[in-house]
Every structure is written in C-alpha cells, then in structure tokens.
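Hi support team,

I've been running sequence recovery on a batch of backbones for a student project. Most finish fine, but this one hangs at about 90% for roughly twenty minutes before it completes. I'm not sure whether the input is malformed or the queue is just slow. I've pasted the structure tokens below so you can try to reproduce it. Let me know if you need the job ID as well.

Thanks,
M.K.
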C-alpha cells in the first residue's frame, strides 16, 4: 500500500512542479501515448507498453458473481471498486463485496462471462483514471 501512496504523491508533485509545461489532459491521450483512448462511458484503453509497464494481471469472469483476491479491490473515499477489462477497455466498477478469508465476492450486472477483472495493480489503474478523467488532471493544465 505504501508504494501506491508514493505513486499518487509523485503524480501530484509532478503536476505542481510541471504545471506550466503540461497541456490539457486530453492532449495526453492518443496514438503513441500511454492512454490511447478514453471515454466517460467505456473507460480507457492503454497502449501495449503501458500494460506491460503497469504489470496488470487479470482473471476471466464466468458470470455476474465474481470472486477475487481481497487485494484486487481498489479503495477510494468511501467505496470499493474493481477494474473490468472488456474489449481492451478498462472501466472501474463499484462493488459491495462480502469477504471469505482472503477473497472478496460480489455480484454485478456490469460483468458478463468472458470479461476480465483486474486482480493485480488495480490501484495503478486508479491513478491513470484520475489523470485522464479527474479534476486533478485539469489542475496540471496551463492556466490553472
């Protein structure tokens, strides 16, 4: 958990240190960038290199009831989520799990057989998501 806190801290530090050099967050999306596509509805797609560098690990879902290691959950403010991977798009899905040992179990209509759920380094995807969609991204833009 300490490494995730350090990554988030480094992100905000970079924003404040380089705020005058950074363009709007949407300028960081596209071919040749870590985030190749972004959509409020669908989520975001990462480049092949970004996927490798973030060392994301997934498991295939068999239906709407999902069991994942507890460490797969991403905690933010007062909710828990996991990241779903469908057709190359990562999307955060809020869940209300029950726990059985080291596992979290939840049901969601947001999942269907064949989807994948991120079981490793989902917290890094949260940082990417905040960079692309969150107000923190605009805080790094020129004129703010």
């Amino acid at each position: 958990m300490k490494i995730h806190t350090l990554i988030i801290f480094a992100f905000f530090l970079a924003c404040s240190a380089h705020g005058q050099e950074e363009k709007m967050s949407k300028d960081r999306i596209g071919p040749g960038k870590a985030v190749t596509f972004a959509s409020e509805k669908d989520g975001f797609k990462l480049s092949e290199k970004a996927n490798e560098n973030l060392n994301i690990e997934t498991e295939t879902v068999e239906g709407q009831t999902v069991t994942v290691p507890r460490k797969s959950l991403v905690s933010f403010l007062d909710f828990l989520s996991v990241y779903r991977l469908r057709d190359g798009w990562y999307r955060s899905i809020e869940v209300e799990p029950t726990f059985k040992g080291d596992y979290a179990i939840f049901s969601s209509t947001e999942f269907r057989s064949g989807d994948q759920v991120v079981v490793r380094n989902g917290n890094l995807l949260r940082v990417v998501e905040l960079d692309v969609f969150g107000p923190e991204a605009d805080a790094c833009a020129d004129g703010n």
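--
Follow-up from support: It reproduced on our side and the slowdown came from queue contention, not your input. The two ends are 30 Å apart (CA to CA). No action needed from you.
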